[in-house]
Amino acid sequence: MAPSSLFISLLLAILLCICPTNARPLKISESMLNFICSKTEDPAFCKQALKSDPRTATTDLQGLSQVAVDLANATAAGTYPLIQTQLNQTKDPALKQQYTVCLDSYKEAIDNIEYAREKLSSKDYIAANQAASACMTDATKCQDATTTTEAFSLPQETKKLFQLCKITFLISVRLSAIN
Prior knowledge:
The chain is mainly α. It has 7 helices and no strands.
C-alpha cells in the first residue's frame, strides 16, 4: 500500500472514531441518571420513575427527555378527569373552588407538557425548559389551592406531577448545556 493511501486510510479511521455523526447515540449512564435525579427533591422517586419505563435502559439523553415528558403527561392526563369528577360531585363551595383551580392548573400543565414534547422533539431545549418550568408552576398552583385532604389523592398526584415536570426541566437544561 502506498504511503499516501495508508495516510488517508488512517485519517479516515481516526475521523470515524471521533466524529459522532455516524455513531449511534450513547445510552444513558447510571451516573447521568444519578446526576439528574440528585437535583430533585426526591432522587429515589426520580430514578424509580425513569427506570419504570423500559426505554430508559437503552436510550440516550434525548430519548430520556421523551420518557420524562411521557410520564408527566400520563400523570396529568390521568389526574385531570379525577379532579373533574370530584368537582362535579362536591357540594362544598370551598372544595369546588379548590377543584376549579386545580382543574385549570392541570389543563395548563397538560398544554405545557405537550409544548415541551414538541420542543424537545425539535431540539429547542430552551423552549422545552420554559414549558417544563411552567408545568412545575401549574402543579404548584394546584398544590397551593388544596387546603384539605380528601380520600382522593390529589395532593400526592400533584406532588408527583411537579416532580416529573422538574425531571423534564432538568433533562432539558442538561440537553441545552451539551448542544
